[in-house]
Structures are given as structure tokens and as C-alpha cells.
Write a structure and sequence with these properties.
- With 191 residues, this protein is α+β, with helices and mostly antiparallel strands.
- The protein folds into 2 domains: 30 residues; 151 residues, Glutaredoxin, CATH 3.40.30.10.
- Helices cover 32% and strands 18% of the residues.
- It has a 7-stranded mixed sheet with strand order 2-1-3-10-7-6-5.
- It is elongated.
Length: 191
């Protein structure tokens, strides 16, 4: 191979590498998530009637939003904090949202657990998670086998085998994984 052919080949390889790097960065947001990766998922969540309640100062809410990358603007998100972070918006007061993030589903919530959930009460002998999440407006249920699952509801759950079902309108509070959101809404999570 002639020296000039080798130089041309090296220039082509360099241009392809630089072009690949440029395309990679142009198609991803600042979090490294491909732009638009969660567009269909976020749209499906919104179309399902699910609502995500949060606060701009909430680290768990911000972590959840970050997972969605550029598709975050499509989420069915309701801001609950006043701009000064000193109070709560009227809509969240009316919905009795006490913890962030909270996801409210129009359909039943189904959770898999071999262990029965624990119902939080207002007694002093409760676990720290119950003391922190106790709400007088609805019952809070905690699963020891599901780290982030706090369920708020006004009815007793039913179960069949290891599937625990909570009534439509119940809410999941805490860090809810995208996989759990997909399961609750039948929305397809992109690979």
C-alpha cells in the first residue's frame, strides 16, 4: 500500500471516529440518556391517567426526573411546592399529598411480595419509616421486602398468593423505579 493511500485511510478513520463522537453527544442529553428514549413511556404514563406529585427541592423527585432525560417535560408532573419552598400548592393540599414523590394511579396498584404489608399507625412504637410517612388522611402500608414501596390508600389491600392489590386511586410514595411504574400502568419501558 502506498504511503499516500495509508494517509488517506488514516484521515477517513479519524473523520469517522470524530463524527461518531459528535453524533453520540448530539443524540444524548447531559445525563447520558439518549434524547427521546423515554418519550413514548412518559406519554403513556400521562395517557394512563397517572399523576406524579413532587417538589422542586425534593432530591428523590429530581432523581426521578433525571431518569427521564429530555422526556421529563412529557411527564404528568404536578409541582406541589410554593416558589419559596415554604408551603404547598392548593392542588396538592386538596389531593392530600404529604410526601414526595407520590404517584397516584387511576387503576389498582399490584405489588409482589411474599411478606404481608405492615399498616402504619400513629402509635409511638412504629418504625422510623412509619413515623415519617404516617398520614391521617389515608392508611399507609409498608412492605419490608420492597424498599421504596409506601402505599397510601383508604381501603384494605387484597391478596392472591404473593400479589397484593390496592384500590384504584391509591398512591405510591418514595423512590419508585421505572420498572415499577411500567408494571403499574402497562406502559412499555424502553430497553
Amino acid at each position: 500500500m502506498k504511503k499516500s493511500n495509508k494517509i488517506i485511510l488514516l484521515i477517513i478513520i479519524a473523520v469517522l471516529l470524530v463524527g461518531g463522537v459528535v453524533v453520540f453527544f448530539l443524540t444524548r442529553n447531559s445525563n447520558g440518556v439518549p434524547k427521546g428514549k423515554y418519550t413514548a413511556f412518559a406519554t403513556c404514563l400521562k395517557n394512563s391517567g397517572t399523576t406524579f406529585y413532587g417538589a422542586f427541592w425534593c432530591p428523590h423527585c429530581n432523581a426521578t426526573k433525571k431518569l427521564f432525560g429530555d422526556s421529563v417535560k412529557l411527564l404528568p408532573y404536578v409541582e406541589c411546592s410554593t416558589p419559596d419552598a415554604a408551603g404547598q400548592t392548593q392542588i396538592c393540599q386538596d389531593k392530600k399529598i404529604k410526601g414526595y414523590p407520590s404517584w397516584v394511579f387511576p387503576t389498582a396498584i399490584n405489588l409482589e411480595s411474599a411478606d404481608a404489608p405492615h399498616k402504619c399507625t400513629d402509635s409511638q412504637d412504629e418504625t422510623p419509616v412509619c413515623k415519617q410517612s404516617y398520614n391521617t388522611d389515608f392508611d399507609t402500608w409498608v412492605f419490608s421486602s420492597i424498599d421504596s414501596a409506601l402505599v397510601g390508600t383508604n381501603s384494605e389491600p387484597t391478596h392472591k398468593g404473593t400479589t397484593w392489590t390496592f384500590a384504584p386511586g391509591s398512591r405510591l410514595s418514595g423512590e419508585v423505579s421505572l420498572e415499577m411504574l411500567a408494571k403499574q400502568t402497562s406502559c412499555t419501558l424502553p430497553q
